[in-house]
Recover the amino acids of this structure.
């Protein structure tokens, strides 16, 4: 599993798609339409696709190589308890490991501002921060994207 | 050579950027391209602080809150000039909010603002010897803002990552300490 973090509007998803396209190009040097290849082999999930479903239900049994979960911070926000969110994400990771080659999680870093006034916002930032720490421990690769540039943290 | 200096508010990015220009150009060729419109008491004080920081460092100031490429007309020998453009975040805000108060949704304006700012900056930096661009990290607080502010942040984000890609060097400054990230 790869974890990609960074501030708002830093080009995280663009960076991920570029990397995935490079890998697919290596695997299929004969391909003419790399964008089409990406569409066929990648599935992108975000908070809109999640809604009230269990995260692991979203992972298809199909043959997509790469599962990308975008806006993970917003998905984490939709779970009120850190423990529930963490369990759901763990199930998602396990399910992906069984069925797909690669899982890429993308999250905003949200902890670097003024401490929010509302309890709810404070809990949200804390939850995202803690879960990112746990994910970073498990990840094979952790990348921070800043100004569209990748810093390999792990 | 083009260098992008990036950092949060009060990170020391201006001072570092000034030092880069000082070490790269003789006094007669140092230009400070100021993009901020000094509005109100606080704005004036902020500008005064920066003017004071620069005093004695041999910069000539050119105020250019939008249409940044026009600064070129006021530089007699561009091929010898070294510019400090401060800062990109103000330029993006001025192009986005002040130029056309009546027209268009903020989201719809993002592509044209990004294009205008990038082509303006590149039109300028290609004509001069060196340029140091200063931009702001406003992206890490995780807060939710109104529609207008989010559109502005998206535009600035896109400008930053294009400038970073096109610059020869990129530094992130934290607590006055520069780290080269490209």
């Amino acid at each position: 599993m790869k974890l990609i973090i960074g501030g708002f509007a830093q080009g995280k998803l663009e960076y991920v798609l570029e990397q995935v396209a490079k890998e697919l190009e290596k695997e299929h040097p004969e391909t003419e339409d790399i964008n089409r290849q990406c569409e066929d082999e990648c599935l992108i999930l975000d908070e809109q696709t999640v809604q009230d479903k269990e995260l692991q239900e979203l992972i298809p049994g199909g043959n997509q190589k790469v599962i990308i979960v975008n806006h993970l911070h917003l998905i984490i926000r939709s779970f009120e308890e850190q423990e529930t969110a963490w369990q759901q994400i763990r199930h998602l990771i396990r399910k992906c490991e069984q069925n797909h080659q690669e899982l890429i999680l993308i999250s905003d870093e949200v902890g670097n501002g003024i401490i929010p006034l509302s309890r709810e916002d404070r809990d949200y930032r804390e939850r995202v921060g803690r879960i990112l720490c746990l994910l970073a421990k498990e990840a094979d690769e952790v990348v921070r994207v800043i100004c569209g540039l990748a810093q390999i943290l792990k | 050579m083009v260098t992008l200096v990036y950092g949060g508010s009060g990170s020391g990015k201006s001072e570092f950027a000034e030092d880069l220009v000082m070490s790269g150009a003789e006094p007669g060729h140092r230009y400070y391209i100021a993009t901020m419109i000094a509005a109100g008491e606080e704005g004036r004080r902020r500008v005064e602080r920066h003017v004071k920081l620069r005093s004695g460092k041999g910069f000539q100031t050119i105020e250019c809150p939008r249409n940044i490429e026009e600064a070129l007309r006021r530089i007699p020998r561009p091929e010898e000039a070294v510019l400090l453009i401060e800062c990109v975040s103000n330029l993006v805000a001025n192009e986005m909010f002040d130029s056309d108060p009546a027209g268009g949704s903020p989201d719809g304006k993002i592509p044209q603002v990004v294009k205008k700012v990038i082509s303006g900056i590149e039109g300028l930096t290609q004509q001069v010897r060196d340029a140091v661009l200063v931009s702001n990290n406003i992206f890490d607080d995780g807060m939710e803002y109104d529609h207008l502010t989010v559109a502005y942040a998206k535009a600035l984000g896109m400008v930053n990552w294009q400038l970073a890609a096109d610059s020869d060097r990129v530094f992130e400054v934290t607590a006055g300490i520069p780290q080269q990230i490209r």
Observations:
- The two ends of chain B are 13 Å apart (CA to CA).
